[in-house]
């Protein structure tokens, strides 16, 4: 079966070769058809199969479950949301903004609860997350924030160089994302959900998902394609596929970990504008990633875009600068994530068409919440989840090309410049 070649992530490499499931074999009729075999599609099927076990559910996936961001991400199940709570409060009211963030915090725990209940060993460790301040400008942005800790406390959690303070949140767990997505796919299949791999979605219309192997007809169809949404006919401007790249070191010696810390496998970042993110893996590597790869004209997605040597070198240099080490890099990989025009993730169901996504890179826990919410909506259950502010939200479309290409890449360059200007000058 002709799967697209891509840079193997550390996560996928540790699990060995993929045994593909068969593709869709001609047209079929089901109650619920889901496009996308990542976290969103799988969690939706998982919870819906419990709420409404009488429904027939099928998932179609172009490659294999977890091929995309669900199997390649940084392994943060976090309560982070790309829209600040204050902005949500202005738009939707304080109580609904608070409810959104509380639901995401609960989703961090729910991922762990569900994995444990289903016997999915995904190296889940809820140590929280620390965002370090390492320049005076970063410190000024953090002071007064909830969870702010001083330099001593921040350094005790993560022993990076030049720490001036930090913001700690308990609402984050480190995990092995590919173990989670592969385990979840197996559990969903055991519950009677049909999964068709090697089946590329060509278009979604009311009541059907048209693929290269046949058409799934269903009373409810769900789009759960995240960063690959731009490949779908009529959806190129819905979510911009922006690449995030990662590296993983070889296992580090205990002498390094004595200095670096992360004893409870806290995830870590710093307050720079260009996002970076890291974790201590269960086998004592640093898995570390960041943005900075260019956006490609026309929302193009290609396997070759998973590898940008300059970004990999920059990530390694950042680890050296942060921790005073020169680690040997064992793995380099990347992939696209989905960004809506207003950076507001959404979930919804209208006239038999459901969707969820636009997580802006914080989708591990958010996809779980989205899956539970979609299951409620499809089953006709009103719940606290179905009243959250992201339900039914519609982001406006991205601008047409070449405006989109110019705007996104200009923003990337401006972000790098802001960080460069904030670095302390050598005396």
UniProtKB/TrEMBL annotation:
Name recorded for this polypeptide: FAD-dependent oxidoreductase
Signal peptide (residue range): none
An example Gene Ontology CC term for this record: cytoplasm
Annotated organism of origin: Paractinoplanes toevensis
Domain FAD dependent oxidoreductase: 31-377
One Pfam family, short name: DAO
Entries under PANTHER family matching the protein: FAD DEPENDENT OXIDOREDUCTASE DOMAIN-CONTAINING PROTEIN, SARCOSINE DEHYDROGENASE-RELATED
Organism ancestry: Bacteria, Bacillati, Actinomycetota, Actinomycetes, Micromonosporales
